[in-house]
């Protein structure tokens, strides 16, 4: 019956069919064709990206091309774009043998999600009533990147446990739910949320956590051998962390108001993030033997200040207010990794691979509250001639939560259908399942695998080859 | 006669002299001194980077510094700069033991090439007739980066098989040829090609392929042991892929017209790239056992949409038009890696290390055609008050092709001269040849090398030491 | 008494207490709280980031939000931000087992330093006399990043030999000293130094070198086994190098004058850096057997042109002048690595881990001189309507040097206090000391450690276990 030297390659190890040779190409092709058709039917350039811009300028007495929104937002857009593809992608490369999937699936679902988001958000926000077309410009592509961020957050909770087809399905529904909850929060409740504490982080966080709860794997410990980092994978993850951290001021200011709005949002976020770093390091060191720092905290909790200023960064929260928010969130988020994540896994059956509860869900909730308080204490005298109308914040947070939880439950049920080629419990966190891997002198030596295999699954199986049986997990 | 435990280190393995201790410093010093002299004789600041700008503003009734071209293009320039040095450099780190050379030679030839390009392009495009000086500003340094991109594309075909001196020579001629063909296409034929589908990708692609054909190595299989990736080298390569992918909208919009031109070019490229990703993943999965994805496709074919929109991105190609182009190019490019590259290596004797035929040459050609069709279907009514005069597109594509193939043949012949210190056939893809390598616990174990050596070269040589003889390859 | 298979883990190896579990959290918490209080007392938004900007626009007849300084400098700020966190951070990952600390401590001290810098620089430069508040905007956060750069340069000299608490203390004093010397040079001496050749690089360089001299470790050779790179750590370091190299034009232009000033600074820096690359490669190749390149030179000396144009880049130094500066600095810096660093370590007792003398101190000094010469040869006729008043350059350089050396001596003495948890001489360059490391199949095999341990420290100790004694180093 063959030998057992290298786990995960022999047919008796896994009962699940992880072949995506039909489903993945089908989903990619059909949905991309659908995008083309829908874009053909609905999407056109807006007046600032259309060749009639020179006429538009004349009609509106605009004297300079520098008034085109492109020049107010494009640099920020590129920063956000880096956060989505390199930031989120590399942040998730920390697992020792899941870097291809982390970067690669992130790439795939973001590339699909931004197209679907342009349509969904376009129908809700950018529909030109005169001709029924969605008119797109630089702000739309920023918002599409934002929308996709919520799905990538959810991906973080499911990392290592889902097939690319599942992730595509999750993104399809995630983007759709996002567009609706965003419409309710921004347009119906008239809340402002330029950096998406509520719309992106709270929604995305609870969406992912609920899916992860529905997809709970009681025997995930069987993949324990791959559920950790190696030295270089942690360094790769720091690339993601730093690009997220550095460009977060652009994230929170990208669609803020021109002028002081964008300016202030960038400064506030810059400060909150700096404070998060210090308190994350403090708690990480305080919690460990000899004060040794833990890369998980450094890679994640340092970012919490940016999440928590998603709503309030464009407001007059003051520089020290931003520092206070960052201070608290660094502590909160690191405590989350130390205390809440193990608790949730053990008692709530939520396996949150990247700890998105600590980095996105909690700080996102807090960010909504901070935004509400900041807005409530603001008055026309502080905001100068641009009074900002704010109300129903609690409702906004509730909507984001509800969409995340209810939507996540429904999508989680769909993802449990035995159609999507997801890996077995003893086969998670492994690029081998969906990628052609190079023959690699650095790979985990067979002898180690062998030992793990024995320890975890079939302690006796390897002793005598005749003992092997199909192990249904 | 010594032992054979570690290949590539013993004197009998290689007949070629790879010592570049005289030639490389000589080329670097002399050419850099030449650059200084030529810049001294010819290059000055243009009116927007010169200290007389305040006077210029007054004379031309410019009221704001924000009208300085710097603010329209500098953010895009920096994105392009990242593509050239990190994008191209890291994309080529995928080989297991050629990362130093990939990043390092890319760095060297780009740093030389941008200087020579400023001169060559300056003489053709930016010569001030009043004083005979080349006047440079931000658009010139963007164009210099563009010009160098064509040489880095050609580098991709030769990766692992050339010495740094050869690459410098290739860049010297490549930049010269580029400047001439660009002048013919843009100035004489009046084609527009803001993102360089024809001038950069078609020319650079066929230039590199022809050189690679001239430098064909029949015994390259002797370096097979190093002609592949390892796990972490593929992750490094994804850094290159993603920075190219993310910043390609800046590449195609950097020198487009102010206002709607840049705005539209960025949006179109964003969309085409997203579509490329989905079809690349689809074909990659479809072509492999169990639907497993291949990193080569993900690293490269996902970028094809950006190449193919190089000409048309600033036109009114429409959002769905961009998606269609990206859709087709992702398929085309992945098929190229699956079918054409092996075919070309076997039957046409073109060893294309990075598959530039699939990523640059073919999509570049297609991009020229797409540009021609888009321009032909455009009319003044669509383009508003700025009608664009376009003709002789087929001639433009032909010029790019001719310069690539004829120029590549001539340059290839020059590079065959036995002067340049290139490696032997059994010594390719190896940083050891041109770099001081760290003693490394991660290196390929001698035993493995030993086995490969036996398999590939002298099956009997290692059995008995007395059998060794100088192996001239 | 246990065995000696893995060095650095048994209690008898090191006499020093590297436990930072109290000190690191205490410093982070207390200083962050101090920042919040001081920001609360002193820091507010300036007129361009405050919600009264619309009123300000009206009062000053500003017609467009594009006149907000944010849009002149924010893209450059983000580039500088990347240099500080990814550039400096990853440049220092070259050591085989110090990547966590390189990136992680860089992150920590920069995040603290920028806050303290906003205060210190604010008191000197941005204090609003009408209400006593520091008013901050985008230029302040750029300057804060600049200020921190000087401390990160100093970190480079101490890399691997200091605890995070020491680095925090060093940053506290470094930022303070920087703010004072910057005030003297820019405000009292009226020198200009937009890219900080004097204020940042000369000061930071000599500050770090003096600290390193005070902290001299006679037995550092005991950590020799970790004092080098491995293949992938050198590739990681190239990420740092390239982001520094690519974005240096933004560094030198970020706070230059609007319009031609920023434009020219970017072009000059672009050119000087390109020339540095060629001469660095030339000298590196010339100095080695068979012309093999050395990664240390490529990672560092290629950047020297940017340092040396820190002062002069905004002046009318001319394009060929920039090339000449880059040409010389590439040579100078590479020679420094080849000749001066070994000399300084042997004879001056300065252990300069990253060679900051060659990359920052010397080119910084040269940059001050270049700036002085350029300014002196300038005249109103060249500078058009904006004559620049420059004097007392020699005094400026002297101030930077004096603050670096005297300040470094004082701070070095403080850092020698036995309070800070720094590692023992045989325990340097090791992430193990301050980080929870993943169990790692790539780690240096115990057998190698064992051998090193024997070679270096107690040749006999491991032969018989009964021989072990506490080894006080």
From TrEMBL, chains A, B, C:
Question: Where would you find this protein in the cell?
Answer: Cell membrane
One cellular component term from this protein's GO annotations in UniProt: plasma membrane
**One Gene Ontology biological process:** ammonium homeostasis
Question: Which residues are in the Ammonium transporter AmtB-like domain?
Answer: 65-417
Topology in the membrane? Multi-pass membrane protein
State the UniProt keywords alphabetically: Ammonia transport, Cell membrane, Glycoprotein, Membrane, Transmembrane, Transmembrane helix, Transport
Q: Which residues form a coiled coil?
A: none
Q: Which GO molecular function entries does the Swiss-Prot or TrEMBL record give?
A: ammonium channel activity
Provide the transmembrane region boundaries.
Answer: 24-45, 74-95, 102-121, 141-160, 167-186, 198-216, 228-247, 267-286, 298-317, 323-343, 364-384, 390-415
The keyword Acetylation belongs to this UniProt entry's keyword annotation: no
Q: Which InterPro entries match?
A: Ammonium/urea_transptr, NH4_transpt_AmtB-like_dom, RhesusRHD
Tell me, how does this one assemble? Homotrimer.
Hey, which family's this protein in? Belongs to the ammonium transporter (TC 2.A.49) family. Rh subfamily.
Q: What does this protein do?
A: Functions as an ammonia transporter. May play a role in the elimination of ammonia in the gill.
What is this protein's name?
Ammonium transporter AmtB-like domain-containing protein
């Amino acid at each position: 019956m063959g030998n057992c030297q290298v786990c995960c390659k022999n047919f008796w190890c896994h009962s699940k069919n992880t072949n995506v040779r039909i489903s993945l190409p089908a989903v990619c092709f059909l949905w991309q064709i659908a995008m083309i058709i829908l874009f053909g039917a609905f999407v056109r350039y807006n007046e600032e990206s259309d060749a009639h811009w020179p006429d538009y300028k004349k009609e509106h007495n605009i004297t300079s091309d520098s008034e085109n929104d492109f020049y107010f937002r494009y640099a920020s857009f590129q920063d956000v774009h880096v956060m989505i593809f390199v930031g989120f992608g590399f942040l998730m490369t920390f697992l020792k043998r899941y870097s291809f999937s982390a970067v690669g699936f992130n790439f795939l679902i973001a590339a699909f999600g931004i197209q679907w988001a342009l349509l969904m958000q376009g129908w809700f926000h950018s529909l030109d009533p005169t001709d029924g077309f969605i008119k797109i410009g630089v702000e739309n592509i920023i918002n599409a990147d934002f929308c996709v961020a919520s799905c990538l957050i959810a991906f973080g909770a499911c990392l290592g446990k889902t097939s690319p087809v599942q992730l595509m399905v999750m993104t399809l529904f995630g983007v759709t739910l996002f567009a609706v909850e965003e419409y309710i929060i921004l347009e119906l409740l008239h809340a402002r949320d330029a950096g998406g504490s509520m719309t992106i982080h709270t929604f995305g966080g609870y969406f992912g956590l609920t899916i992860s709860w529905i997809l709970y794997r009681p025997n995930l410990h069987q993949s324990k051998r791959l559920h950790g980092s190696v030295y270089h994978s942690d360094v790769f993850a720091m690339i993601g962390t730093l690009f997220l951290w550095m460009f977060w001021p652009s994230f929170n200011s990208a669609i803020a108001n021109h002028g002081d709005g964008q300016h202030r949002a960038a400064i506030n976020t810059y400060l909150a993030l700096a404070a998060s770093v210090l308190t994350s390091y403090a708690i990480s060191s305080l919690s460990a033997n000899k004060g040794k720092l833990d890369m998980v905290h450094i890679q994640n909790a340092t970012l919490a200040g940016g999440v928590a200023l998603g709503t309030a960064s464009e407001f007059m929260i003051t520089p020290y207010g931003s520092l206070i928010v960052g201070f608290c969130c660094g502590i909160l988020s690191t405590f989350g990794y130390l205390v809440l994540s193990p608790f949730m896994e053990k008692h709530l059956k939520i396996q949150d691979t990247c700890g998105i509860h600590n980095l996105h869900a909690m700080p996102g909730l807090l960010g909504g509250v901070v935004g509400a308080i900041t807005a409530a204490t603001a008055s026309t005298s502080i905001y100068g001639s641009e009074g900002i109308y704010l109300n129903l914040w609690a409702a906004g947070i509730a909507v984001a939560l509800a969409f995340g939880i209810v939507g996540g439950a429904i999508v989680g049920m769909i993802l449990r259908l035995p159609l999507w080629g997801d890996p077995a419990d003893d086969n998670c966190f492994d690029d081998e399942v969906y990628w052609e891997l190079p023959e690699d002198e650095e790979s985990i030596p067979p002898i180690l695998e062998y030992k793990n295999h024995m320890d975890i699954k079939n302690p006796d199986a390897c002793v005598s080859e005749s003992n092997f049986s199909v192990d249904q997990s």
